[in-house]
Write a structure and sequence with these properties.
With about 300 residues, this protein is of the alpha/beta class. About 30% of the residues lie in helices and about 20% in strands. The chain has helices spanning about 15-20, 40-50, 60-70, 100-110, 115-130, 155-160, 185-190, 230-240, 250-255, 295-310; strands spanning about 5-10, 30, 55, 75-80, 90-95, 110-115, 140-150, 175, 200-205, 210-220, 245, 270-275, 280-290.
């Protein structure tokens, strides 16, 4: 029997990408709401409660409202792509490769919170080092990142692409979140197993999709005996046995003249790198992903597929 899937917010950037990934699949029946009726609460509520799995591609408050609409329906399962539930105790965090048993948690969960795109890269680099005891919980972590402009949704896409837009953005690259209170910081802190909130500095480039996340570290402030090689080995061990997150060999990283933010566009995977000099005092950890792939829509479909195998 096919599973009924409703994408609440299917006409937004993330929702459209999810629909594209499920086009032609015969194991799911996509319930759809006409764009003209997308703000019709009665129709939305009916479709939500008719689904086996609802994927919420909505702003935080709208996601909370949708959850309220299905509060008494134990037959529906939810995947939320907003930041509303990413640190909630009763929601599984939808980063399947984060721990060896995380995929099983997602598979059996009723409610799954899709990770943010930036946190996927940051947590993907930080958590393995915390689990291995290499990175102290109170280390002053810095996360520097650049994303394609589709991460800002339809509004930013229009600002970047339409020269006649009243708020047209002409910059090739711009920094934002200068208050250092970005909404992604709580999930980086909680799921990165950090005692101190990281200093997160995001930026946007004039390219549609793609992302680079960097976590620079001082080797002398890590666990005694830490080195570029032991850090790399910890990442390799953490992600052994799966093919979604790839840790690039040190020799291959050393031979790279540059890292292209757009390399993984259209893919639902992530690459991790360890850059530095053997015996050096600094390393730079780098995550490369598509902000709409493993960073959003691709992750949502991956989580849905895990839930469908429960």
């Amino acid at each position: 029997m096919t599973a009924k899937i409703f994408i609440d917010g299917e006409h937004g950037t993330t929702g459209l990408q999810i629909r594209t990934r499920m086009a032609g699949r015969r194991d799911v029946d996509l319930l759809s709401i006409p764009e003209a009726e997308r703000r019709n609460p009665a129709m939305r509520e009916d479709l939500l409660n008719s689904a086996d799995i609802a994927i919420l591609c909505l702003p935080d408050d709208a996601s909370r409202d949708a959850v309220t609409m299905v509060a008494g329906n134990n037959n529906i399962r939810l995947i939320d792509t907003s930041t509303a539930f990413r640190v909630a105790d009763d929601w599984a965090y939808g980063f399947a490769e984060m721990d060896k048993d995380q995929a099983a948690r997602i598979r059996s969960a009723r409610c799954v919170a899709n990770p943010g795109c930036y946190p996927t890269g940051a947590i993907g680099l930080i958590r393995p080092l915390r689990m291995a005891g290499i990175l102290p919980a109170d280390y002053p972590v810095s996360v520097n990142a650049v994303s394609g402009y589709t991460g800002g949704g339809k509004a930013m896409i229009a600002q970047m692409e339409d020269k006649n837009h009243p708020d047209h953005l002409s910059a090739n690259n711009f920094l934002y979140g200068q208050t250092l209170k970005h909404k992604h910081v709580p999930e980086m802190t909680v799921h990165g197993k950090l005692d101190r909130a990281p200093l997160f500095s995001p930026s946007v480039g004039r390219f549609a999709q793609g992302m680079i996340v960097q976590v620079p570290l001082f080797v002398e402030d890590l666990k005694d005996g830490a080195s570029m090689e032991t850090i790399h080995a910890a990442l390799v061990a953490h992600y052994a046995g799966q093919d979604v997150v790839t840790v690039v060999p040190l020799a291959d990283s050393a031979a790279m003249p540059r890292v292209d933010a757009e390399e993984l566009v259209g893919q639902d995977t992530m690459k991790l790198f360890v850059f530095g000099t053997p015996g050096g005092t600094h390393v730079n950890l780098v995550a490369l992903l598509d902000n709409l792939g493993k960073g959003a829509s691709g992750a949502a479909v991956q989580n849905m597929d895990l839930m469908l195998t429960a």
